[in-house]
Amino acid sequence: METQLENLNQIKEKVFRKIFLLGVIVFFIVLSVSMLHVNQPEFIGLRFPFLSDFEKSLFDTLLYAAYISVGLTVGVISDRIGKRRIFVLIGSGGSILFFWLMTIATDYTVLLIFRFAQGGFTVLAWQILMTLALDISGKRNRGKNMGFFGIFLVLAMGIGTILGGVFAELGVFMPYYFSAIFNGVVFLISVLILKEPAIIKKNPSVRQILLVVKNHPKLVIPGIFNFIDRLHMGFIIFIVQFFLADTLGLSEGFRGMILAIYSFPLLILSYHMGKLSDRVGRYKPLIVGSIGFGIVLSLIGNMGVLGLPVVIILFIILGSFASMTTPPAMALVGDVIKEESTATGMGFFNFLGNVGIFIGPSIAGLLMFNYSLAFLVAGLIELISLGVIGIILWIFRRKESIRPLKF
User: Fold this and answer.
1) What region does 299 belong to: left with phi over 0, alpha with psi -120 to 50, or beta?
2) What is the domain-level CATH number for residue 178?
3) Distance separating alpha carbons of residues 348 and 339, to the nearest angstrom
4) pTM greater than the 0.85 cutoff
5) Which of 203, 221, 247 is the last residue in one of the domains?
6) What is the C-alpha to C-alpha distance for residues 313 and 334, in angstroms, rounded to an integer?
7) How far apart are CA 338 and CA 323, in angstroms?
8) What integer is the mean pLDDT of 356-374?
9) Over 80: is that where the pLDDT of 211 sits?
10) Which of 179, 203, 227 corresponds to the end of one domain?
């Protein structure tokens, strides 16, 4: 009995070390991407001063377009050839090249092509690392492992904006050079340490995802929540840098700090909000979080001009409300479908999220001529989407497709 317990503890420790390694690798990848958002007004605006706001937004839009297109295909290809590690090597190696190429592009169209390619190579490595985390996880530890893995993602997003601001003040291209260096670290770790999993678990195909959605129509509810959450993530990451530079004249360092301030409540509160949703139900925190997020976001354009202290307070509150929506929405996926279909359901959930983050910067670019209007429209999108979800729930009840929800 003691020997069995000892073997089980050894297995758990081995899995933990693997998850930790994957978390460290994905930390450097996400760090390299998040650093670049801070100095976009300088990197794009000063090099190409005659662009419209919408043209500027394409820099982020094409990044997320690459996430969608490559993200849909890499899992299928990886499953087909039965390999994972090679994609991390190709992804990090290609990222090194295109982070550097973006610094020497003299034509904006060429810069956008390089940006799309960089996004494709980045998501190539990023998504396979997430798949590797699932490969070594089972039913009993999947949630814990992905939660631990997710900590590295959020930390990278928060720290990346701070480092991006610090590096940008040393030179407009410095965040890109360091992004290439960090991907070089990923490449070396992948060559020297990263191993193929003993068992390759299948990723869901697009056909499987559509079939599960057809059989579990309630999946559209967490899917819409994630679509809106990620839409606003794309909106905020793009527009905040220009808003803070134009209205408050903040440097790259301070702009990075504001994005970090928005990210840290997500890091601190997300776990607790997930536990809260286990106790009170998914919809209470989702409703409160969506309403609060929509109201605060709509006020930023008008109130943010009052000064940096006001901006800091608004983004702390905004990040706190954001923490109330993402964890319950993810948990809701598992609530509405059978356990064996969870991975497929998450495929649909993440696909809608990627579509949302693709649209977000475009909305910001179209409305940036008036920041007050832009933030107001973004906030109203959150509130209107909550009303749409309410209508969908009412339709489901009417058709008795799902049992009545308990609030």
Assistant:
1) alpha
2) 1.20.1250.20
3) 15
4) no
5) 203
6) 34
7) 26
8) 91
9) no
10) 203
Between residues 203 and 241, the one the model is more confident about:
241
pLDDT digits (tens, 9 = 90+) for 90-142: 999 999 999 999 999 999 999 999 999 999 999 888 878 877 777 776 656 65
Question: What is the C-alpha to C-alpha distance for residues 300 and 298, in angstroms, rounded to an integer?
Answer: 6
Q: Are 21 and 190 in contact (CB under 8 A)?
A: no
Give the DSSP H/E element, type plus range, for residue 161: helix 142-168
DSSP 174-224: HHHHHHHHHHHHHHHHHHHT----SS-PPPPPHHHHHHHHHH-GGGHHHHH
How many domains does the chain fold into?
2
Region label for 202, one of left (φ > 0), alpha (ψ between -120 and 50) or beta (otherwise): beta
Confidence of residue 407 (pLDDT cuts 50, 70, 90): very low
Do 106 and 242 belong together in one domain?
A: no
* Structural domain containing residue 55: 1-203
- Residue 205: other Cβ atoms inside 10 A: 15
Q: In whole numbers, what is the pLDDT of the chain averaged over residues?
A: 83
Longest dimension (CA), the chain: 73
User: In terms of residues, how long is the chain?
Assistant: 407
How much is the average pLDDT of 190-200? Answer: 79
Same domain, 106 and 226: no
Spacing of C-alpha 156 from chain mean position: 11
DSSP H or E run through 381: helix 371-399
Give the whole-angstrom CA distance, residue 53 versus residue 57: 6
Task: Give me the residue label for tokens 């760090």.
Answer: 31
> Which tokens in the block code for residue 43?
């990197």
Q: For tokens 């990451």, what's the residue?
A: 237
Mark whether 251 and 135 lie in a shared domain.
no
Q: How does pLDDT run across 292-344, given as a tens digit for each residue?
A: 999 999 999 999 888 889 999 999 999 999 888 877 887 777 777 766 566 66
Residue located via tokens 């509810």: 221
